[in-house]
Amino acid sequence: MRNKKTSPSLFLIVPIALCTLALSACKDSAPQVLGTLEWDRISLPAPVAEKIVRMDVREGQQVAAGASLMQLELTRTQSQLAAVQAQAQQSREALSELEAGPRSEDIAQARANLSAAQAQAAEARAYYNRLLPLGRQKLVAASDVDRARAAAGNAEGQVRAAQAALLELERGTRSEQVAQGRSAVAAAEAQATTQAVSLEKLNVVAPRAGRVDSLPYKLGDQAPVGSPLAILLVGDAPYARVYVPEPMRANVKVGQAARVFVDGREAAINGRVRMIRSEPTFTPYYALSGRDAERLSYLAEIALDKTGADLPAGVPVRAEFSGNANGQ
Q1: Distance (Å, whole) CA 136 – CA 144
Q2: 267 phi and psi, to 5 degrees?
Q3: What does the alpha-carbon distance between residue 129 and residue 123 come to, in Å, rounded to a whole number?
Q4: Do 134 and 96 form a contact (C-beta atoms < 8 A)?
Q5: What is the sign of the dihedral through the CA atoms of 24, 28, 33 and 37?
Q6: Quick check: 57 pLDDT over 90?
Q7: Stretch among 113-122, 141-150, 217-226, 315-324 having the lowest mean pLDDT
Q8: Contact status, residue 257 vs residue 322, Cβ threshold 8 Å
Q9: 113 to each of 67, 110, 151, 164, 315, how far by Cα in Å?
Q10: What is the C-alpha separation between 48 and 72, in angstroms, rounded?
Q11: Any idea what DSSP says for residue 199?
Q12: What does the alpha-carbon distance between residue 11 and residue 115 come to, in Å, rounded to a whole number?
């Protein structure tokens, strides 16, 4: 049996083919950046320091926009709302009184007071006129004449005051008083509206459809004002938060297409860069390798399509940008 001889040209063809494949692979592969998968988060702060009296959802539950999440105690806020509503009603009634002007009975009373003052003034003047000649004849004391003169002057002053009071009622309420009354009503109604909004916020609802990520407080807890009562993950799909090394930064633009790879999924998820920071940050620990540990990187966000809508937050991802992102 004769041995077959291998052609010398075969030893040349195989290395050339391997090199060609390697160069092609190096040319087609794009540099990748590392990061994590994230969802947009909404935090719902406590509007007031009230006790949680009802829990309507649990962590991980999917909720629709407007769905009730929890209920805070209403008693105190309801009482405050009732008080400001009563003040607003009082201000409206006072304004109505100002706009209606004086009552006819008040005007009649003012006219009667004027008539009485005029009668008293006439009597005082007559008494003074009778006493004055007697004073000149030294038949009465000068002090009696002075008292009669003062009484007559005082009575005439009472007449002028009664005339002014009647004139004020006849002319009605001043426009400035009506304007002040309207301002008081507007202020009271604004306070009532604010308190009504505060009361409505005690029923904590989801502002957008999403998934309940965290409920820091439990039934019966009393969270301080501003503390998050619930945290929601919202949006149609998550986004990739990645760190772009400095050599690639100049070629990564907002709106640029990208592919994101998630461990456990063979197919890449398509996305587009929606944000990239202008100032660098230090490279995160999971992106350190060799001399890259001394380089800065830039935080970027890649919005993904809906094929990744079922992925959880916090999953490590790798991303590569389309186009000449590596500057070569």
Answers
A1: 12
A2: -80, 145
A3: 10
A4: no
A5: negative
A6: yes
A7: 315-324
A8: yes
A9: 67, 5, 18, 11, 90
A10: 9
A11: H
A12: 137
Q: How far is Cα of residue 287 from the mean position of the Cα atoms in its chain?
A: 38
Supply the mean pLDDT for the chain. Answer: 84
Amino acid found at 154 = N
Tokens of 192: 């009532």
What span, in angstroms and rounded, lies between the C-alpha atoms of 59 and 211?
8
- What is this structure's pTM? 0.63
* Neighbouring residues of 29: CB distance < 8 A, sequence distance ≥ 6: none
What are the start-end ranges of the E strands in the chain?
33-45, 52-55, 62-63, 68-72, 203-205, 210-214, 228-245, 257-262, 269-276, 281-282, 296-304, 316-321
The single-letter DSSP state of residue 51 is B
How are strands ordered across the β-sheet holding 52-55?
52-55, 68-72, 203-205
The two three-digit tokens of residue 291, written as one number: 């001399």
- Cβ-proximal residues to 297 (8 Å cutoff; 6+ apart), any chain: 33, 243, 244, 245, 246, 280, 281, 282, 283, 284, 287
